[in-house]
Amino acid sequence: MRRKLHITAGAAALALLAGTAAHAVETQPQLTLESADMIVDTCLDMARDEGWNLAVALYDQHGNLKRFSRMDGVQAHSIEIAHLKAVTSAKRPAPTGALHDFTYGDPDTSPGAFAFLPGITVLRGGVPIMTESGAHLGGVGVSGATSQQDEDCANAGIEAIADRLAEH
Q: What would be the CATH architecture of the domain defined by 29-166?
């Protein structure tokens, strides 16, 4: 009888803990490969229409490569720059252009510390991918045109999935 009571009490405790653990798990929306493809393909289509040769990198919010593409004829350094722009906006939910303005905005203190941190860039063209509710899904980086054109292209790619970002 006593043994049955201990087993029953133990099972009840496990059930309670399992229920608590299930409620303690936080979920975050994830950027699908299909959405990543839409962003990159939109950038590449825009580049073709404008006559630009671009490299486009897309990373998830953990800094892991999700998608990369480079057009024929893109300059070799644009490949690395696109990756840096994407990683910067994937790890920190801010456009690289905003980091540029922050870093070089005050002539008395420019350049700021961001200009010297390894593994990030303050060149325009890196844009975070955010849901409408503010969840950070990653970042896209574009390089090969002017910095403003790179940023415009990244924004156009993200706009291509605006309906999906609004769902979260």
A: 2-Layer Sandwich (3.30)
Q: If you average pLDDT over residues 134-163, what whole number do you get?
A: 97
Q: Which residues contact 19 (CB under 8 A, 6 or more apart)?
A: none
Q: Where are the domains of the chain?
A: 29-166
Q: What is the pLDDT of residues 2-50, one digit of tens each?
A: 555 455 555 555 555 555 555 678 788 899 999 999 999 999 999 999 9
Residue 99 token pair: 């980091």
